[in-house]
């Protein structure tokens, strides 16, 4: 969903697992869907962890724990590894997450998140460990993600880090634009360039 980014302050859902791959984010059997319904993919985010084999809810999985909520997912190192399926980013966005924080993202998945208006924030391993501790000690811990300033702040400790983002993608997120919107917005400039270079 296209949403402008500015400053997001939210409680977090902790997922302190490393090497979470795209098949765990959205199992392959859901890739057959012929439409991109956000609710469909969101409902099946981490499907095999959220539900037992018999279809009952796995009460031990964090998304089924009412203690944790918010639009920020805090994930372990190497998030989004495995296949390049964009459906994984669709599922994260469809569930309602607007930010994913980790110490490392698989490159293709990171770009897929950006293309689907989910902001991947890379922090140091030390900062990530502190975040997990803060959330564990108090599930109401809030994190502030400031895209214009490119900072992430643990409100429980006051600790802050900066994060990198491609300038073009930052512009698109701040303005709520996808790639097509950006081209349409610059249609006159493109046409002018074509005329000058014909």
Structure commentary:
The longest helix has 13 residues, at 125-137. Helix 4 (87-95) links the parallel strand 2 (72-75) and strand 3. It contains nine helices and seven strands, in the order E-H-H-H-E-H-E-H-E-H-E-E-E-H-H-H. The chain has helices at residues 22-25, 38-43, 47-50, 87-95, 107-115, 125-137, 167-175, 179-185, 187-196, and strands at residues 7-15, 72-75, 99-102, 119-122, 142-146, 151-154, 160-162. The N and C termini lie far apart (37 Å). By secondary structure, it is an alpha/beta fold. The protein has one domain (7-196): Aconitase, domain 4, CATH 3.20.19.10. The model has no long low-confidence stretch (mean pLDDT 91). It has a seven-stranded mixed β-sheet with strand order 4-3-2-1-5-6-7.
List the helices and strands and how they pair.
Elements: E1 7-15, H1 22-25, H2 38-43, H3 47-50, E2 72-75, H4 87-95, E3 99-102, H5 107-115, E4 119-122, H6 125-137, E5 142-146, E6 151-154, E7 160-162, H7 167-175, H8 179-185, H9 187-196
Parallel strand pairs: 1-2, 2-3, 3-4
Antiparallel strand pairs: 1-5, 5-6, 6-7
The CATH homologous superfamily corresponds to Aconitase, domain 4
Mean pLDDT: 91
CATH architecture: Alpha-Beta Barrel
> What is the total domain count?
1
Largest sheet: 7 strands, mixed
Helix content: 25-40%
Shape: globular
Please state the structural category: alpha/beta
Short key terms for the protein model shown above:
single chain; 198 residues; 7 strands; 7-stranded mixed sheet; Aconitase/3IPM_dehydase_swvl; Aconitase, domain 4; 3-isopropylmalate dehydratase; alpha/beta; globular; 9 helices; LeuD
